[in-house]
């Protein structure tokens, strides 16, 4: 009986610890063409990739992460983190020039007591978005999920990823 109680307590402690671990969810939405559609959630302890359409891997695939990758990934996205929710698409002040049929991406930062989300449509061609668009397009390559995504990038005109 004591052993069962210890196992239950250890499981509960693990759930509490996991819920307090900051994580980031990146979800890439479809475009009119063959843009990769995927979602992944990552924290310092690892992540889960889900390939939905036009990805090299379909379905769920766990991946590991090093402390350096986690730090680099968080640091790359941090300058673009809004307070609350920001949606940069048609009608937003940073989306006065809009090209239709492009994919969008959402990034959600989750921490204890706080959640922020950025939604960006790659069709927003305002020059103020150049760094943001590049960061969001390159973010998967900072982690092991980059290799799970199709080798095409329609939002920036390139058809193949550069060799690493």
Uncertain segments of ≥5 residues (pLDDT<50)? Answer: 3-19, 157-164
Broad shape: globular
Q: Strand sequence of the main sheet, in spatial order? A: 4-3-2-1-6-7-5
Largest sheet: 7 strands, mixed
State the distance separating the first and last CA atoms: 55 Å
Strand content: 25-35%
Helix content: 10-25%
Rg on CA atoms, Å? 18 Å
- Secondary-structure element sequence? HEEEEHEEEH
Count of DSSP E strands? 7
State the helix count.
Answer: 3
Output the structural class: alpha+beta
- Average pLDDT for all residues: 84
Annotation keywords:
about 160 residues, alpha+beta, globular, disordered N terminus
What does this structure look like?
There is one protein chain. With 164 residues, the protein is α+β, with helices and mostly antiparallel strands. The longest helix is centred in the first third of the chain and has 18 residues, at 2-19. β1 and β2 (37-43) form a beta hairpin. The protein is globular and about 40 Å long. Helices cover 23% and strands 28% of the residues. The protein is built from three helices and seven strands, in the order αββββαβββα.
């Amino acid at each position: 009986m004591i052993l069962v109680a210890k196992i239950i307590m250890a499981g509960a402690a693990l759930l509490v610890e996991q819920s307090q671990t900051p994580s980031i969810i990146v979800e890439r939405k479809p475009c009119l063409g063959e843009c990769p559609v995927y979602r992944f959630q990552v924290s310092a302890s690892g992540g889960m990739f889900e390939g939905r359409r036009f990805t090299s891997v379909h379905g769920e695939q766990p991946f590991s992460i090093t402390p350096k990758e986690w730090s680099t990934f968080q640091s790359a996205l941090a300058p673009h983190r809004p307070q609350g929710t920001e949606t940069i698409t048609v009608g937003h002040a940073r989306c006065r020039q809009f090209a239709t049929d492009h994919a969008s991406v959402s990034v959600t930062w989750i921490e204890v007591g706080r959640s922020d989300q950025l939604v960006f449509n790659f069709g927003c061609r305002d020059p103020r978005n150049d760094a943001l668009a590049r960061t969001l397009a390159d973010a998967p390559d900072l982690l092991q999920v980059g290799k799970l995504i199709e080798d095409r990038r329609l939002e920036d005109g390139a058809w193949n990823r550069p060799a690493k």
